[in-house]
Amino acid sequence: MAITTEFPISLRDPTLLDCRGLINGEWREAVNQKTFPVYEPATGSVLHSCADFGREEFVEAINAAYVGYRSFYKDTTAKDRAQLLRRWHDLIIENMEDLAIILSLENGKTLAEAKGEVTYAATFVAWFAEEAVRNYGDVIPSSYANSTVLTYKEPVGVCGIITPWNFPAAMITRKIAPAFAAGCSVVIKPPSETPFSAIALAKLALKGGIPSSLIHVIPTKDRKASLELANNPLVRKISFTGSTSVGKMLTKLASETMKKVSMELGGNAPFVVFEDADLDQAVDAALICKFRASGQTCVCANRLYVHRQVLEPFAEKLTAKVRTLKLGRGIDDGTTQGPLVNAAAVEKVKVHVADALAKGGQLWTGGKPPSHLSGFFFEPTIITGATADMAVATEETFGPLAAIFPFESEEDVITQANASEYGLAGYFFSQNVSRIFRVARQLECGMIGVNTGLISAAESPFGGIKESGVGREGSRYGLSEYQNIKSVTIGNLSWGVGKGRL
Questions:
Q1: Are 165 and 376 within 8 A, CB to CB?
Q2: Contact of 71 with 27, CB cutoff 8 Å
Q3: Which among 450, 477, 495 is the end of a domain?
Q4: In terms of domains, do 356 and 224 share one?
Q5: Could you give the dihedral angle defined by the CA atoms of residues 38, 44, 45 and 47, in that order, rounded to the nearest 10 degrees?
Q6: Is 457 helix (H, G, I), strand (E, B) or coil?
Q7: How far apart, in whole angstroms, are the C-alpha atoms of residue 399 and residue 37?
Q8: 319: three-class secondary structure by DSSP
Q9: Annotated catalytic sites, by residue?
Q10: Containing domain of residue 146, as a range?
Q11: Tell me: the pLDDT tens digits for 188-205?
């Protein structure tokens, strides 16, 4: 298939769309002129080509980033870094329309969702601009006489950033804003499915005054080349969002040089509706939590557990709302559900639906790709009668399939909800205050939503337990992921008066 060079819609600032990589302030093609195609999921056709870099460019970027971070941290104050981040934030907001169009076309999500993501991405930049000046150390009482202990927080250094395609704007800012706030530099490997959002954000970062030696963007389809981020000893931290299998592999490689790691990996989120829940509230939350971004979010509800007493009315209400959703190209008016990212994603949903129906599940709506659309679409689907032996019980569908499992008791559903190697997010709905505190303590998840399907925000720590990863992003805890703590013990202090010394 021929690779197009014409973007299918005009932008207010056409320079934001760029197919090149960024190394030390220079926008360039790959040395060997290689490119790879980026597809528009809504049509299945090639949207644009992108430069395809190799290992040599990663090494060059890492070397430049190492020099950059050493001078940046030495020559700037926390106030300076905060001001740079605020300017970057303002530019993201000023260019929201263009950023949303780029994101919608390369990712497929609706324009409304894309605008929401750009706004969400900007909140991380604003948050860490404020956290930069709150980078406090401690004075610790020493157990030794005439001594005191001070602690300093210092940047880890060069950070390798590997981001996913499902949130191509927000996952960039959630990782690199705290890196800049701490004084680090970054080398970004954007997802090959959605590289243009990262490139556009980098352009705005440079325009806002972020030093060019701090931010490098290396698009590639060469997995071996990108492993330089894990292998190179100058890289002192890896931040990755993606599959558990890849996260484990990167962690093993990073251990060879004892890099700091943040791994935000797979999920299999339970969504529990107790018999005393506000059903309308639970249905609205399920609609957002399950079908936002066509079910392609890592905190998306994957297993819906509904008490038998309320299962029928819950399913009826949810089905009625799901049937109002409109599939289509994300940038088209009226579209509420965009496509999946590629053909493999569609196939996975088909397999999960077929498996569930073969094992006794009942189809309420959806169940197949729509015949009237040519891209990577799948109808929003609801299946009841789900059981633990179905694939959807143990695998993350990452698509618009709501599988509803019945349960009988609180103890029963907690056992089912925790019967997963993943522990990223969980949700439950109840009007009983005692139950809310009791269940929240027992669910094995890093993040829990109670009577809400929205749990992600700049001020809230994001991350999981078990095989869903390590580390936290966002919040005041997110800054520490990019810092080392140094203790300084000062001994033999004299507290005498008039001796001319302290």
A1: no
A2: no
A3: 450
A4: no
A5: -40
A6: coil
A7: 23
A8: helix
A9: 264
A10: 14-265+468-486
A11: 999 999 999 999 999 999
How much is the pLDDT for 182? 97
126 contacts 458 by C-beta, under 8 angstroms = yes
Which pLDDT value is given to residue 32?
87
On whether both 359 and 302 belong to a single domain, the answer is yes
User: Counting every residue, how long is the chain?
Assistant: 502
Structure tokens at 352: 């999960």
Q: Please give the pLDDT value at position 497.
A: 55
The strand pair at 235-241 and 260-264 is best described as parallel
Cβ contact 286:294 at 8 Å: no
* Distance, C-alpha 355 to centroid of its chain: 29
Q: Please answer whether residues 262 and 238 qualify as being in contact, where contact means their C-beta atoms are separated by less than 8 angstroms.
A: yes
Q: At what angle do helices 196-207 and 96-107 cross, to 10 degrees?
A: 160
List the structure tokens of 146: 């005439």
- pLDDT for residue 3: 44
State the Cα–Cα distance between residues 223 and 201, nearest whole angstrom: 23
Partners of 48 in beta bridges: 38
Structure tokens at 437: 């505190």
Query: CB-based burial of residue 321 (10 Å sphere; 0-12 exposed, 13-18 middle, 19+ buried)?
Result: middle
Of 391, 389, 398, the residue nearest 424 (C-alpha): 398
Burial of 89 from C-beta contacts in 10 A (0-12 / 13-18 / 19+): buried
Task: Provide the H-helix boundaries in 396-432.
Answer: 410-418
Residues 37 and 143 in one domain: yes
Closest CA to 90 of 132, 131, 118: 118
Closest Cα to residue 118, out of 186, 198, 49?
A: 198
pLDDT, one tens digit per residue, over 336-375 is: 999 999 999 999 999 999 999 999 999 999 999 999 999 9
In a domain, 285, yes or no: yes
What kind and span of H or E run contains 127? Answer: helix 111-132
Residue 276's SS3 state is: coil
If DSSP states are collapsed to H, E and C, what string results for 165-225? CCCCCHHHHHHHHHHHHHCCEEEEECCCCCCHHHHHHHHHHHHCCCCCCCEEECCCCCHHH
Consecutive sets of 10 residues in the chain, 502 residues long: mean pLDDT of each?
57 96 97 95 96 98 97 94 98 98 97 97 98 94 95 97 98 98 98 98 98 98 97 98 97 98 97 98 97 96 98 98 97 95 97 98 98 95 98 97 98 98 98 98 98 97 98 97 97 70 48
Rg value, the chain, Cα: 24
DSSP secondary structure string for all residues of 128-139:
HHHHHTT---EE
Neighbouring CB atoms inside 10 A of 146's CB total 11
* Number of domains making up the chain: 2
What CATH number is given to the structural domain containing 28?
3.40.605.10
d(CA 462, CA 446): 8
Q: Is residue 2 part of a domain?
A: no
